[in-house]
Structures are given as structure tokens and as C-alpha cells.
Amino acid sequence: MDIDDHAEELASDLGVAKEEVAEQLSNLLEYRVPLEEAKSSIRRKHGTDDGGGSSTPTAVDVEDIGVDGGPVTVTARVLTVGTRSIRYQGEEQTIREGELADATGTISYTMWEDFGVEAGDSVTVGNASVREWEGEPELNIGGSSALSTAETVEVPSEVGGERSLCDLRPGDRGRVVEVRILEANDRTIDGRDGETTIREGVVGDESARLPFTDWQCRNVLTEGADLQLDDVYVRKFRGVPQVNLTEFTEVTPVDRAVSVPESAPRLSVAESVNSGGLFDVEVVANVIGVRDGSGLIERCPECSRVVQNGQCRAHGEVDAEDDLRVKAILDDGTDTVTAVLDADLTAEVYGGGLEEARAAATEAMDRSVVSNAIAEEIVGRAYRVRGNLSVDEYGANLDATEFDPADGPPARQASDLLAELEAVE
Ligand SMILES: [Zn+2]
Questions:
Q1: 181 and 139, same structural domain?
Q2: What is the pLDDT of residue 418?
Q3: What is the full DSSP assignment across 316-358?
Q4: Are 207 and 265 in contact (CB under 8 A)?
């Protein structure tokens, strides 16, 4: 049966002109409304609803859900369910968040009521509104929505929240990870309910390391513990993804040793920058330049901002303190990123600390001799740089924890030198 035959059948059932029905039908099909749904819709329109189909006529595929349209009805597989408590219009409210998918795509959702769904369930969501969240459509499933069980929807996406740390992205909800606690420290903060103690630190698995915050400050999260964290969410904090445990996160020991490699994952500059932020990553790239604000710099003693001519942007005229820093532009052919070296790493590439830098600047009566000397040393050479990569409105920065020439670890060069010296003695 082609569209024409369907139109003919509808027209004779409804007692209306075939042309009219054919046009309505082809319009609906153009918007990818499934054929049976389209026919029910036309029947309803002509006042002979057969009672079939779902509660609203706008059943759509996930890939066709746009932010401009009205409420939708969609049949999909629940991929993940995360539970979180938020304050909404002054009220404490428990919401469910995660992703739904059908064969055409994936969409995130927020459920404002407990419909009792679990990852893996196939459901028809009737009358869900669509809002824009971080540039993407998101389904809002609330009191006026209807949820019913559907036949299993086959999806190309992974069902369930299990992920490696390297695959976590800000905005992820309902994730399940198996990690080793690498660092854990308690901190008291001014939370929304007054002073509260949280536990912060670093978790690792076979793929990566990430910072974490446990808002419940569980004692089981101690250094060396191997744990499954069921239902965590990920947000961007200080430019990198952070794993968050809430009151709804289930923490259980795992009976295997989670091994965390010593080295950081090595990525191209483009891969690192496109990730939007990574904790502990390694790139190998050429230094193609040194930015302004490198070398012997001055900082505000109150806020640590870099000051120029003794003027802090926030504190005005201050008694600035000297510091050393390098902002090196790295390029590996795929993209560029600015590596930021702290005072210790800067002293290594400069070959001297604050005292030496001050002496050189005084002798030349020009502070820029320090950054010039650094540029001479590092520009045009390849380096292996490890650190935390953040991306914000100011660009991509790699906060370096290691900065070594790519052509050989300096540790070996140093020991060779030492061996030579000993041989001389
Ligand atoms: Zn300041």
C-alpha cells in the first residue's frame, strides 16, 4: 500500500475528499510522524478517533525533537537514571535525570516525578515538553506527562551508566564507575544549609584520574579503597570534569584491585582541547612562542592576580610580590594550547629561581630579560607536558605539573652528568 492507497482508505472511512486527506497525510509523513500515528491523527481531526495510538498526535523520533516545537510523545529506551535533590522555587525536590534513546538518537531528560523507571526500560512518554539545555533539546517529563511501558526499543547506544573515567563529561548523570581513591581530604564549606563538611580528592581507574567531591563525606572513601560508585553526576569545576557523589549515590567495595597507571593518557592537542577540559593529560608538542606575562612577574599579595605597574584589577595599588611563571604556546600540528608553568617548573627551564631572576633584571635594568632568556631556551623545541587542561572564555590552558624535553627525560641526563662528575673524582 502506498500513501495514495492509505489516503483513499482514510477518505472513504471518513467520507471526505481524498485530495484533502492525501495532503494532510503527506505533510505528517514529511515530519516523520509514523504512518499509523499519522492516520490516527487525521481520524481524530475529522472527529472519528479510533482510540488507537498514543495520547497526543505528535509522536516523534528522538532525532526530530527540536527546541522550537510543542510537547511531544516519544517511545524510547531509558539509558540512564540519575537521582538528585535540587532546590527548585524554594522547595527541596528530588528529580531523575539521564538519557533516553531510540534508533535515531539520544536525548537527555529531567523527570520531575518518580515514575519508577530504571535503566533498560522501554517507555512511551506522552506529552513531554522540550526545553533547551546547553544548546541541546532536553525532555521535561512532569505532572502533565504520561508514562507507559512499551515494547523493547532496540538502540545502538549503551544501556546503563557504567563508564570509564576517561569517558565522563560535564553534564553526565546517573553514571556508575569503579575506582580507587587516590587522595581524600575533608573540607568545611558554607553550603546552602549552613556549614557542612565535604570530602574531596582524586579517584582513578585504568583509563584516567579525576577529582571528586562527596557531599555526604562518607568515611569509606579513604585512600587506597577500591569502590563502585553507583549514580554519580559530573560537572565542570575549575575547568575540568569532577565526579560528584550525592545522598543517592551507592558506594560499595569491589573485590578487585583497581589499577591506576602512573602515566597520564597521551592525546593530541586538538583531542585535549575538544574534550572541553581534562584532569591529568599528557601532550607532546613544540613550543612556538612565549606569551606576555611570562618570566619575572608581579602578583597582588591579596588575590594573587598578576598585576601591572603595581596596580591590581581588584585591589588597586598594592605592594606586589615577585613570582615566576611561563605561558608557553604549544603546537603539535593539530591545534594550540597554552601551557602554564608554575614557579618551580619555570625555575627549571630558566636555570635559576627568583633570586637569580631578580639579579638578572636588576643588572639589565629590564625585567623582560628573564622571559627573553626563557624563550631562547624553549621556543622551537618539543616538550612532553603533563597537567590539567581547562577550556574557558580565555582559551585553552594546560596547567603543567610536568614539563620535559620530548627528546629524553631530564632525569637520565642529570644522572649521566652525575656519573661523569663521579668519574672525574
Ligand atoms: Zn588583588
A1: no
A2: 55
A3: EE---EEEEEEEEEEE-SS-EEEEEE-HHHHHHHHTS-HHHHH
A4: yes
> 311 alpha carbon to ligand 1 midpoint, in Å?
8
Same-domain check for residues 237 and 289 = no
Residues 280 and 405 in one domain: yes
How far does the centroid of ligand 1 lie from the alpha carbon of residue 421, in Å? 47
Distance 97 CA to ligand 1 centre (A): 40
**CB-based burial label for 270 (10 Å; 0-12, 13-18, 19+):** middle
Q: Give the type of residue at 20.
A: E
The predicted structure's pLDDT at residue 55: 40
Q: What is the DSSP string of 216-271?
A: T--TT--TT-EEEEEEEEEEEETTEEEEEEEEEEEEEE-SSPPP--SSPPB--HHH
Identity of the residue numbered 184: A
Question: Separation of 385 CA from ligand 1 center, angstroms?
Answer: 30
Domain end, chosen from 90, 119, 149, is at: 149
pTM, two decimal places: 0.70
Q: How many whole angstroms from 46 Cα to the centroid of ligand 1? A: 71
Distance separating alpha carbons of residues 133 and 149, to the nearest angstrom? 27
Centre of ligand 1 to C-alpha 295, Å, is 20
State the pLDDT at residue 51: 43
Rounded mean pLDDT, 137-158: 90
- Whether residue 237 is contained in a domain is answered as yes
Q: How far is ligand 1, taken at its centre, from the CA of residue 313, in Å?
A: 6
Q: Are 148 and 106 in contact (CB under 8 A)?
A: no
Say if 422 falls within a structural domain.
no
How remote is the CA of residue 298 from the centroid of ligand 1, in Å? 11
CA of 330 to the centre of ligand 1 (A): 29
Contact 53, 36 (CB under 8 A): yes
**Higher model confidence: residue 412 or residue 247?**
247
- 8 Å CB contact between 41 and 31: no
Task: Tell how far the Cα of 316 is from the centroid of ligand 1, in angstroms.
Answer: 7
The residue with greater pLDDT, 9 or 318, is 318
Shared-domain flag, residues 319 and 407:
yes
- Per DSSP, what are the bridge partners of residue 138? 108, 131
DSSP bridge partners of 84: 95
Q: How far is the CA of 260 from the centre of ligand 1 (A)?
A: 39
pLDDT on residue 309: 85
Q: pLDDT tens for residues 249-262?
A: 999 999 999 999 88
